[in-house]
Amino acid sequence: MTVRLVILGLLHKRPLYGYEIKQIIEEHMGDWTSIAFGSIYFALDKLADEKFIDKVDVEQEGKRPSRSVYQISDTGREEFLRLLRESWQQVERQYFSIDICLFFLEALPLDEVKNFLRLRQKTLQTMLGYIQSHRDEQMAIPEVPRLALAIFDHTLVHTQAELNWVTDLLQKMESGEYP
Amino acid sequence: MTVRLVILGLLHKRPLYGYEIKQIIEEHMGDWTSIAFGSIYFALDKLADEKFIDKVDVEQEGKRPSRSVYQISDTGREEFLRLLRESWQQVERQYFSIDICLFFLEALPLDEVKNFLRLRQKTLQTMLGYIQSHRDEQMAIPEVPRLALAIFDHTLVHTQAELNWVTDLLQKMESGEYP
DNA sequence: CCTTGTATATTCTAGCTTGTATAATTTCTG
DNA sequence: CAGAAATTATACAAGCTAGAATATACAAGG
């Protein structure tokens, strides 16, 4: 679902070829999604089958492998808007593997669990710093749209929430509130 | 990954058959994961191939379809601990589809976006209330382990963080800070 | 009494995603 | 200048999931 939305979204602006799409995703959206080559080419084929995009051109730069450039069609634009609206509307339930772990906690010695939590704390603190500095960098560039900051903030608030929760849990474990 | 961990974790306590596993997951872990029948039977087959579990019995109650009961093996217990440690240790990056949407925001009229956000606010408030009352219910039952509350808190802090962020974003959009 | 819905229990299939391998060339780096 | 990394794409296996299909049991309701 994400794959199609992203591809259609990027083709919405201008025609692109597969490898280029992968690069754009990594460069500009790498913090918020990750899509494998296989998925991109698979999706491009599928979208072309469905007439949401057309192969417009096969460029060739020197003797490099030739590039198949795709262009979005009118029905493709409609599909893009449909997908975008659908994604906006859904509030997805996030599942955390750590919740599952907590269910099976008794299988591990308490000390080990505490160590894991301390490690998690450190990781989260590092991540927080990384996002923050990344955000500040972006903020300094005037042509970055203000909305980009909202996306950073999103990651930020969740990471902070996670850190708070871990800290609280660890504190409760150390005070002996949990057996 | 989750599927295997959960199945091994449940079989850790006692032998079970596929349908039973599905029921336990829905009843006791329904708020934190969701695993389809197909995934369970697929994983059971795979785990049996790998000798992490053994088919011990084919019960039949009346003329109902027969049940294949699986039991965890010694290597299965090891694998369970390995998976559990692995899951504990990883701090997974969560991807939110709304972040992707924000990238393509300009494709939708601003009013529509604001409406989506208001709707999202309401949904999150409802979710928050639901989790809270669920948590209170559990708290009232003395035999529910205190840790279960930690899991509720986890969901709670993230939902609250999400709500705060949406509220902030909406406020900024309404004050005209974002075009 | 016949139908309908729901619970029990499993199997199958189609579709998506990832990862890895392969290929051929080109550009960067020490 | 050698070797590493990047460029572009294809192909295939393997894993995972959702959803439908299948078949029986049983309670409720008209």
Compute the CA-based radius of gyration of chain A: 22 Å
Query: CATH topology of the largest domain in chain A, anyone?
Result: Arc Repressor Mutant, subunit A
How many strands, what sense, and barrel or not for the largest sheet of chain A? Answer: 3 strands, antiparallel
What is the tally of helical segments of chain A? 7
Low-confidence stretches of chain A: none
Question: What keyword list fits this structure?
Answer:
179 residues; mainly alpha; Arc Repressor Mutant, subunit A; three-stranded antiparallel β-sheet; 3 strands; elongated; DNA-binding
Describe this structure in words.
With 179 residues, chain A is mainly α. Chain A has seven helices and three strands. The first copy, chain A, has helices at 2-11, 18-29, 37-49, 74-89, 97-103, 110-140, 146-174, and strands spanning 16-17, 53-59, 67-72. The first copy, chain A, has a three-stranded antiparallel sheet with strand order 1-3-2. Chain A is elongated. The first copy, chain A, starts with a helix and ends in a 5-residue tail after the last helix. The relative contact order of chain A is 0.09. The interface between A and B is large, with 63 and 63 residues. Chain B binds a DNA duplex (30 and 30 nucleotides) through α2 and α3.
